[in-house]
Design a protein that fits this description.
Number of strands of chain B: 0
Number of helices of chain B: 7
CATH topology of the largest domain in chain A: Rna Polymerase Sigma Factor, Chain: A
Number of helices of chain A: 9
Strand content of chain A: under 5%
Number of domains of chain A: 2
Number of strands of chain A: 0
Helix content of chain B: over 70%
CATH architecture of the largest domain in chain A: Orthogonal Bundle
Largest sheet of chain A: none
Helix content of chain A: over 70%
Distance between the termini of chain A: 51 Å
Shape of chain B: elongated
Structural class of chain A: mainly alpha
Strand content of chain B: under 5%
Largest sheet of chain B: none
Oligomer: heterodimer
Largest interface: A-B, 66 and 51 residues
Chain lengths: 165, 201
């Protein structure tokens, strides 16, 4: 394909790569899986790029493709590498910002999210990304009312998971 | 404050600590092969079409037709073959039409539904082949046995019983093969689709 288009695409993706990293953070465990999922998202974005119309925002379009890749297309490779350190990278820098209990709570919360099913994870992700219910319903293909109901259920489920821990 | 809202605050702060890939790394990723589910389903489906067509071609070269000629049912056999090929072409056309419609930019539910529909087409194709094969096998056998002198003193019921047994075994093997092949491939997709569907009732 055209070199100029490739360059333009890579530039856009590089600027928006946080979206994909955050999805990996919710769906992947360990460094190898994180990179694997990120790569699959990149490939899917690139494949779909010819149909991307400039009038839509790249980031909005990217949310959809990346989330679809994570919950529909992506197949985990069978790997057994334990990379605990990677999983906790987000907590490292916060030592000064939070006291120990808050940090501990956050850690537990991330663990609880990992235990949710793929659809619930998507809901949590979109919520954390500050998406409104219209956007959530359009991304997942469910009605707005059901998205709202489901979100409340997920919040309850998280609460339960945390109280068990 | 809700748990999730506490997390939301942290979520925004984490951006600085996320890993960042460089331009060259992203470029390298573009060259890599996709391992997506759709790709797998597509290739396995093509193999399935090829397998049944291959079987058909193979058996027609084996000279089974001679016995039909002797029994005077050649025309019926030709008709069975023509119907078979027309239906197979139809299935392949539907498969490609469905496959074309799979778009990653659809909403999650629609995307999953389209993938499952594509899958279903191939599943129907395989079942059609099994059933059609079994039926035409029985019909042809019936005519051959009743029309040919050599088979007159054979106990027809024992013969049918044995044929039926072989057929069931054949179906069981194919079913098992499918469970293995697609079980691992579509389990996650099916589960996620069900969840979305249940929640949208």
């Amino acid at each position: 394909m055209n070199k100029a288009i490739e360059k333009e695409f890579v530039k856009k993706l590089e600027a928006n790569q946080n979206i994909a990293h955050k999805i990996c953070r919710i769906y992947a465990t360990g460094e190898a899986e994180h990179k694997d999922l990120f790569q699959e998202i990149t490939i899917q974005l690139w494949k779909a790029y010819p149909k991307f119309r400039g009038d839509a925002k790249f980031s909005t379009w990217m949310y959809r493709v990346a989330l679809n890749t994570a919950i529909t297309l992506y197949r985990k490779q069978k790997r057994r590498i334990k990379t605990q350190e990677w999983d906790q990278y987000a907590f490292k820098i916060k030592a000064e910002e939070y006291d120990d209990t808050t940090e501990q709570n956050l850690k537990l919360m991330y663990q609880a999210i990992k235990e949710l099913n793929d659809i619930d994870k998507a809901l949590v992700f979109l919520y954390l990304e500050d998406k409104n219910y219209t956007e959530i319903s359009e991304t997942l293909g469910i009605s707005e009312v059901n998205a709202r109901v489901k979100m409340n259920r997920v919040k309850k489920k998280l609460k339960e998971l945390l109280s068990i821990d | 404050m809700e748990e999730l809202d506490i997390l939301k605050q942290d979520w925004k702060k984490q951006e600085a600590s996320l890993p960042q890939f460089k331009t060259e790394e992203i470029c390298a990723m573009l060259k890599k092969k996709s391992s997506s589910l759709v790709k797998w389903i597509f290739f396995i489906s093509l193999l399935e079409f090829a397998f049944w067509i291959g079987l058909e071609v193979f058996s027609s070269f084996q000279g089974y037709n001679d016995i039909f000629e002797k029994a005077g049912v050649e025309l019926l056999y030709q008709l069975i073959l023509i119907i078979n090929y027309v239906v197979i072409i139809g299935f392949i056309a539907i498969f490609f039409y469905n496959y074309q419609k799979i778009k990653i930019t659809d909403d999650a539910k629609r995307l999953m539904k389209k993938i499952l529909t594509t899958r279903k087409t191939v599943k129907c194709y395989v079942w059609f082949n099994i059933v059609y094969f079994a039926l035409s096998f029985m019909v042809m056998n019936y005519f051959v046995i009743t029309n040919l002198q050599e088979f007159q003193n054979l106990n027809i019921w024992i013969f049918i019983g044995i044929m039926f047994g072989i057929m069931l075994l054949f179906i069981a093997i194919i079913w098992l093969f499918y469970q293995l092949l697609y079980g691992f491939l579509t389990r996650k997709l099916y589960k996620n689709y069900k969840q979305l569907e249940d929640l949208d009732l």
